[in-house]
Protein 1
Amino acid sequence: MSVEAIRQVAAFALRYAAALVPELLPEGRRQGSEWWSRNPARADRHLGSFSVSLKDGRWHDFASGDRGGDLVSLAAFVMSVSQTDAAIWLARRLGLDLPELEGRPGATDADLQRQLQNATRESEARTLEHVRQVQERQQAAAERAQRLWRDARRASPEHSYLQRKGLRPLALRQRGSELLVPMFLDGVLANLQMIAPDGAKRFLAGGRVKGAYAAIGRRESATRLYVCEGWATGATLHQHTGCPVACAMNAGNLLPVATDLRERYGQAFDLVIAGDDDRQTEGNPGRTAANAAALAAGANVVFPDWPDGAPDHLSDFNDLAVWSVRHE
């Protein structure tokens, strides 16, 4: 079996991604240049938690952190087979006769080999162009984030979202009716999360999210550092423990943030993943992602300890704090 043959199959398959991806993930829909689906490896209710780029074949499960860089790895994941078997399936599906891939005697037809090599070059060029475009969008978003943050005022303690969550504004700023949550990457402001009074959240279009986080509290004299999903959860943890918190903003970002912090600070902190407990969502993506991040970063993990009578729709530490105050 040749690694190069697998790479060539992946590149050739990319030409037919618009037909192959729906075949692999039939319970989905096209959204622009992506295919949004449910994760086929778990009981997942919501489209969009699992996405595949129809341009470069990259796929990502935002709940579990599972990801891959091409359609061979996608087929292997969906069908629970090896990369070799997935490549063989794709080759047969596309009508490619590749003796080397299947371990049969003989050589690949010269004309087919040229097609495969051309497809590989096209794929590599497409990937480089995609990376360039993504980097340009991220840089533009970072520059816009820095302008908006500079011009915003300090957040009002009377903001309805903060009132509803029982939180102080801490270091947040406000633009119009929206709270601005700064997200940093390598010490540089890379993106903003904007929170409307009704709790609706959005990031700047094109902005970097992976690996970026909102920092709450000072690390200088701390011995424990929490990593969580949302800002409200992080603010609640900080207000109750005094410890610094890194807010990853979503379940899929817990792992890259936690592993980066462990690599950066080593054992200087007792690293704790404070996970959401999505009890009403099949597969509990919050708990799944928190456990995966803790395992990868060598961290401890904690979840809300629900008292008797706490309704099942509560999922994070802020939900628990707000409910507890109302039921004292």
Note: The chain is about 40% helix and 20% strand.
Protein 2
Amino acid sequence: MRGNADLDFAYKYPFSNEAKSIIDGLKITQVEQRYLRASKGQIDMALAEGISYKGTIMADVKTGYLITYAYSRMLVSAAKNAQLIERYAAAEAKRSAQALEDSDSDEMPRLAKELGMDAEPLYFNKDVAAGGPILSVGLSSFMKYSTKIKGLELVNQKLGSGRVLLAQNNAIRLLEEAMKMEILKGLPISSNLLPKEVVEFSKGAGFNVAVLAPRIAYSKADTWVDKLLQTPIPDIRHRTVNLILAPYLVNSKGMSVDQATKIISEYIDRCKLLDPATRINERYIRYQCDYAKKRGLKTLSLDRAKELLGGTIDVSVFS
């Protein structure tokens, strides 16, 4: 039986090994609708006002949150939307950062170790009481997580013995980014590993790909196919390659089969970040490029492409 301290740590940081061990110990064998509904609510909060940390002494509430977290990972994966996954992970990381703010000082180094960071506490630093540094972070760990955090540039930090010395606020900001990256690991879960109940529930969950799809600053010179090549889509169909991309690159753009194959392969790799399950490989792409070149195939019209891709992404952005 896990102790209260272990469960409390897992509740605060549901991505932790402690949380995974607790979930494994529950031996959940079937999908429950109540947790699917709870996870939808969790994701809705992540997209709206964010997920707030709420302290509790109730063990069943903490355990329920861990189960909901596991369901939420499956549900955002089933939705096949990169921005949805990103925003959900950011919201969970921010919740855990809130929990960290209210925690004992020894929890920060434990969390840093959990995240694989080179970090050491500065318990006896004489400046701690005055808001001085409380965490010493190795340079490589600092650079790994700080690059996307405004105001946390290395030039603005205090250094000592080749390490970055962080006050509490900046230490929590760095750990929040590390937690977000940890949460993103393994996402999206491959569709062939998701329970059918989760996949079916996701279809009516209301996570609208068209609303969440990022708006890219396209060039005026871009054709609609150029725009497509800049916009990864979650459901890659073979017809996207053989009816749109291959004919466009080798015939309309006059590229060689090698050039076209490379560009399409890179595009498919970006699409796989949304759903790794696609079976399209470089051999298939090269065959379709070669076939399109030999036959002089023309790419589909935008109207016809809307019929082909309309259920996958908001094609109106290409107009």
Note: Residues 209-213 have pLDDT under 50 and may be disordered.
Protein 3
Amino acid sequence: MTRHRRGFTLAELLISIVVLGVVAGAFTKLLLAQNRFFTHETNKRFSRTVARTATNILIADLRMVQDNSGVDSATADGKLIRIKVPYRFGLVCGTSGNVTTVSMLPVDSATLGMSVYTGFAVRNAAGTYDYTEPANPTTSDIPVTTTNPALCTGNGGGQAQIRTVSANGRTGQLLDVRAQGPSGAMVSAPVFFWQKITYSFRASIVYPNRLALWRNVQGAPNGAEELMAPFDTSARFKFYTSGSEGSTTAVPALLSDIRGLDVVLPGLSPNGTTRDSVSKSTIVTSVFFKNVRTF
């Protein structure tokens, strides 16, 4: 007996191919959509990370700035500020001629290693700090171990009776600061060493045609350092001044009136997707100076 075998007809094959094509097309479209979504979200996360990381870096320095004369210079376009940042604190033991002897608290060796001495500041009777910047702060005018430690630790007349403090295996230092300090500096008045740090938004090396946040410690051997990038051209500093309720883009006539900053950080992603442009996430951080006279 002859057995007949039936296969697929041409019409059935064509219908199957069409159905498979539709399913494959829909699946491919879904994969592409998911890939675009993933890329878009990755770019958004990157842009937010750029802005948030820059915020964390800036806050550490900006909050240490004194609220009177802590800002050294600022540009009209809001792209650059130079600030005087304290990094070590202590008390005045006495002043003789052009030498001020100070008792400084112990400090972490990493802090000292990353800081560049630019000058010192002594608090006056009004509660503000008088800044002194020696002519050669990194060479001949650098603080040195005092030749008269009894001026700080002694109990006799004209001696400050300040005990040297130790903490975590580190001991404070008694130093002579070779510069003409403020006249009439009071014994036991707070004093700090400071460094000049410039923050600026300028052309990035890592991301051409974009802005980067740069940090430059005056006198540091490595020069300016590109911290974070990329940023949009709208990145800038805005200023809070004494008596104002909001920040302003205009640089105050008196830099000593600046009490804080708005830092506008429009972080960008390195690239966009095939349909979307480069992602941007803007974070505006308000930072008010911590060393204030009154609250």
Note: Helices lie at 10-62, 109-114, 150-153.
Protein 4
Amino acid sequence: MKSTVNQTHVRSINQRVILDAIFQVDTVSRAALSRSLNLSKVAITENLSFLLDLGIVKEVGTGQSQTMGGRRPILLQFNKDYKHIVAIDLVYEDAIFSLANLAGEIKNKFTIQVSNTSPYAVRFELMKNAISVLLSSQNINADDIAIIAISSPGIMNPQDERYQANEQFQNWCMDDLSLQLKEHFSTEVMIVNDVNAAAIGEFNEGAGRTSHNMLYVSCGLGIGAGLILNNTLYEGGSKSAGEIANFITDAESKHPVNLEKRTNTDSLLRRVRKEAPEETLMKLECHESFTFKDIVRLWREGDDFIDTCLDDIAKNLAVAFSNMVSLLNVDLIILGGEYRVFSERMLPIINQIIENTAFSPIPVVESHLKYDASIHGLLTLARNKVFSQICNKNIKKAQ
């Protein structure tokens, strides 16, 4: 039995290596796979048969023969439409829904506004209906979904396998949501920390494509970091790496204020409400109920008080960033989240402080993928999970 399991495990590894290799190219022959992966032609043929029968790899004609008069090789190609991925990013009062094939090509995407007071029952119905709209838009059904991937602030507790959501997202009841979506659509559901998903997105397709060690920092409603170390997402022992919101900024105070409370959008709105001069307040339609979007508008109009507020936030962030750079020796920091819109104002301040204080200064740049970073990261993580599930099927049978 042990020998059988070991052989099955080797087969699973080979299938995954072959599947990854075919995914990376347009078309490839069996002989080319054998050479590039250093696997025998017999091993290539045996492992390919499973992937071809499944339909995730397909034969697509013939290529050029290697010898005069030789047989033309049959070309192989990844079947990107074998299954589809539903990727959902739960932004505070918005939810971004997208449908993509296994190659990450987005077929449909839309945003739905969600009231922060909506009960869970309403949210679940909204989620079901939105997914159904995505499927019908491409004329596919639930059987065509490989996985539903959701990003949200919070972490999966490894002890009890329960999702610890941030306070603003507790109405989503992530554990119940995961189970009910799995039951309703008869498919796998995965939940990923939103900042980690965004870090993966920027690393693979955005500002971090040439980096090997980077931080993606989301600043705005909250603050958190996603760490890519040695080309791999680092989550830490309890899956809470990057929770920089709790960085202490004033140890002398009886009630230390953490980094998030000094820099988030709530603190910015409170400061404007309490300290803004009359000339700033006069530009707001309502002095009490203005929103973050109003702050962005005032900044774009050149309001001096908003500039001062952003400069102070940038200085607080720069201190945290400089400490992280000196500790982790990353080669890049990417600024995302709601404060990305202020990059023009904040990044020069942040970069100057890092240049003056970090042991080995590195650049801080704006997110390239903007609000789609988490969606792109989800698609990568979801595809990897689908590949693993496919190639591990035989192991489970052997056990």
Note: The longest strand covers residues 84-91.
